[in-house]
Each structure stands twice: as C-alpha cells, then as structure tokens.
Amino acid sequence: MHFFKKVNADIRYYTVNEGSTNTLTRVNTSHVGKHISTKAVRGNHRQDITLEYKFKEGSTSERAALLGEQKNAIDSLARQV
User: Fold this and answer.
1) pLDDT, tens digit, for every residue of 24-59?
2) Neighbours of 54 (CB within 10 A)
3) Which residues contact residue 44 at a Cβ distance below 8 angstroms, ignoring those fewer than 6 apart?
4) Distances in Å between the alpha carbon of 56 and those of 7, 14, 17, 52?
5) CB–CB of 1/69 below 8 Å?
6) Which residues does 21 contact at the CB level (< 8 Å), separation at least 6?
7) Helical ranges in the chain per DSSP H
8) CB of 24 within 8 A of CB of 13?
9) Cα–Cα distance measured from residue 24 to residue 41, given in angstroms and rounded to the nearest whole number
10) What gap in Å lies between CA 58 and CA 10, rounded to an integer?
C-alpha cells in the first residue's frame, strides 16, 4: 500500500479560513507518479517503468484503483479505533 500511495497520490490544496477551518479549493490528479523510472539493467540510461506499476494517468481504471485504495485505508483506520 505504501508504494501505491506514492505513485497514485492526488495533490489537494486547501484554504485556511477564520476559525482554523479548511476549505478544499483545488485537486491536482495528474502530477504525482507521472513518470516512474529506474536505471536500465544493461546500460547507464533511464528505463521508464511507469505502465508496469500503474494504469494510464487519467484513465477510469487509474481513478477506480485510487478510490479503492482510499476506501481500504479508511476501513483499516476504522478497525484500529
């Protein structure tokens, strides 16, 4: 789950209001995990492995996977309480 969060996270922007309440103002769903790479086995160049670790950015499958993982995280937290 930890690696999943790092390549499929959303960036959420909040505005802090008077009284210390927060309002969600914007969500960027495409910035994190856009490119995942590693050093190539044969050679000294970058090998793009993005599609081996996640669905295509912005696809229905990618969003469904992210929402499913969020639900799993919430369920896990609820069991700890």
Assistant:
1) 999 987 777 777 888 998 899 999 888 777 777 777
2) 19
3) none
4) 12, 27, 36, 10
5) yes
6) none
7) 2-8, 50-53, 60-80
8) yes
9) 43
10) 11
